[in-house]
User: Which sequence fits this backbone?
């Protein structure tokens, strides 16, 4: 045990504390069940609202925005900007936090409805404003999201820029794919 670096030992202790807290104060509590219910409802709404004809593009966008959101979230939690006191599972990835699920599902629906760049940029900005100034304060009020060294306004440019960058990357991938599919002389 003496070969374990000090920071790894501290991380292990923090994980144990987090697990104990989750087992004693979170799992099977009413807010935990409500979180499960909300996530199921959001996934159901997303599935019903998703354009099945462009499901591949929507899912690609959702996967890419998930990667970005997880990165943002990991940095934010590591730097103690915010915390999610109620999670379905007690360890990373915190994909069970309502904020991340909302971001991914909402932005992927926006992506499918706004294909043109100017309309998407406007829709992304409006969506970011709704998330930052309505949804996140509501989640904080409900005890699902705690701001520590962060302000709601900081998320607005971050979310807007992230969603636009992912929109651009997704569309670029789609254009590359379409150019290969439509390549002249392709007999496959």
Assistant:
């Amino acid at each position: 045990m003496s070969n374990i670096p000090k920071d790894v030992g501290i991380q292990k202790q923090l994980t144990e504390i987090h697990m104990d807290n989750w087992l004693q104060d979170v799992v099977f509590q009413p807010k935990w069940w409500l979180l499960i219910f909300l996530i199921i409802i959001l996934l159901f709404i997303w599935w019903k609202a998703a354009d099945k004809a462009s499901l591949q593009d929507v899912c690609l966008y959702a996967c890419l925005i998930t990667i970005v959101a997880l990165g943002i979230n990991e940095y934010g939690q590591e730097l103690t900007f915010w915390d999610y006191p109620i999670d379905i599972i007690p360890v990373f990835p915190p994909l069970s936090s309502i904020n991340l699920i909302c971001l991914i599902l909402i932005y992927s629906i926006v992506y499918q409805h706004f294909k043109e760049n100017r309309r998407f940029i406007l829709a992304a900005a409006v969506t970011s404003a709704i998330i930052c100034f309505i949804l996140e304060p509501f989640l904080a009020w409900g005890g699902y999201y705690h701001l520590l060294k962060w302000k709601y306004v900081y998320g607005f440019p971050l979310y807007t820029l992230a969603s636009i960058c992912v929109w651009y990357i997704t569309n670029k991938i789609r254009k590359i794919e379409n150019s290969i599919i439509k390549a002249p002389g392709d007999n496959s």
